[in-house]
Amino acid sequence: MASSSSSTPAAVREMQRDLESQANALSKIQKDISKNHQVRKQYTIQVGENELVLKELELVNDEANVCKLIGPVLVKQDLAEAKANVKKRIEYISAELKRMDRALKDLEEKQNSKKESIFRLQQKMQAVQAKA
């Protein structure tokens, strides 16, 4: 009987180490989720700004001068080229948003799986400690 009780504290210590490792992994996943939300927020703002620019460009008549700010200098730009550039930017940012959405879904699944794993380990530890 003595060998059973001496292995129990070692088993509990091993479970505690595993629990700590899993908690650290969960913390990293949660930080990644938070970072994803921040980046998605920036992209969403950028899409909105670019859509406003495109609406403004649609209102401009074909003879109007369109300029682009490059550093401290305003450079004249062709209206069709300006519209095409803004549309490309919107497409690119929208694609990035979709990619971020997929990454977020993956991270949330990993988070849920890790939480479940931690919960099962905690239950197992409680059962082992209750027997001791």
Describe it for me?
A hairpin with a 2-residue loop joins strand 1 and strand 2 (73-77). It is rod-shaped and about 85 Å long. The chain has helices at 2-59, 79-131, and strands spanning 66-70, 73-77. The chain is mostly helical and 132 residues long. Strands 1-2 form a two-stranded antiparallel sheet. Helix 1 (2-59) packs antiparallel against helix 2. The longest helix has 58 residues, at 2-59. Belongs to the prefoldin subunit beta family. GO terms for molecular function: protein-folding chaperone binding; unfolded protein binding. This is Prefoldin subunit 6. It holds the Pfam family Prefoldin_2.
Question: What's the Cα radius of gyration?
Answer: 27 Å
Instruction: Give the terminus-to-terminus CA distance.
Output: 11 Å
Kindly provide the name of the CATH class: Mainly Alpha
Q: If you consult CATH, what is the topology?
A: Helix Hairpins
Helix content: over 70%
Number of domains: 1
**Shape descriptor:** rod-shaped
Contiguous helical run count: 2
Order of helices and strands: HEEH
**Strand fraction:** 5-15%
Coiled coil: 90-124
GO biological process, one term: response to cold
Family: Belongs to the prefoldin subunit beta family.
Keywords: Chaperone, Coiled coil
